[in-house]
Amino acid sequence: MYIESSHANNTGLAKMINDCVYDTKLPTQLDNPNCRTTINGFPIEVYMNGEYLGIYNFNHDRYSIMSYGYDYKKYPNMLVYEINSNSNVSAGAFYQYGDNAESSANVSERDYYARDFKLIYGNRTSANDNYAEIKELVQWVSVAEYDLFKETINEHFNKEYLFRYLLTVLMIGGVDSLGFWLN
After folding, report:
1. How many whole angstroms separate alpha carbon 183 and alpha carbon 170?
2. HSE of 14 in the Cβ direction (CA atoms, 13 Å)?
3. Which residues contact 82 (CB under 8 A, 6 or more apart)?
4. For 154-181, how does the pLDDT look when each residue is reduced to its tens digit (9 = 90+)?
5. What pLDDT was estimated at residue 7?
6. Cβ neighbours for 174, distance < 8 A, ≥ 6 positions apart
7. Which residue would you say has higher pLDDT here, 4 or 44?
8. DSSP 44
């Protein structure tokens, strides 16, 4: 069920990644072992009026905050973003506003970051988010030379999760998740 040729491979891979790859538990998982780092679901075969339509995913919404244990009372400062862009020229590829005139033309600085990063969970809404943390991260990645990057990576990333992500993406061939790494 982990790797197969249907559209349903997402749920199988998500189970493997949650159960096998990320074995160091996040704070939400320590509080509640049912919380996950990935979507959860299963593949289903769909028939309509006797006609076979294929295999599809049946899973909870990836924005389902309860599945991931996001709780404003326990974690009031937690922010969760999703990178919306699969670009190699914008904020999602860690280019600061203005670094690439083409991708930042005719858009405000806030909107530049908002179009590549979606706020999934936090103590603010997408409408009033100033993306300060995202701007800081993008600036650090875009200007850090090798030594500075190596010395300060712990300030910006959980290295264990970062490296597990990289290795998992390489293992499953998910290179579309590495656009900025391949440039």
Report:
1. 15
2. 19
3. 117, 118, 120
4. 999 888 888 888 888 888 777 665 654 4
5. 52
6. 168
7. 44
8. E
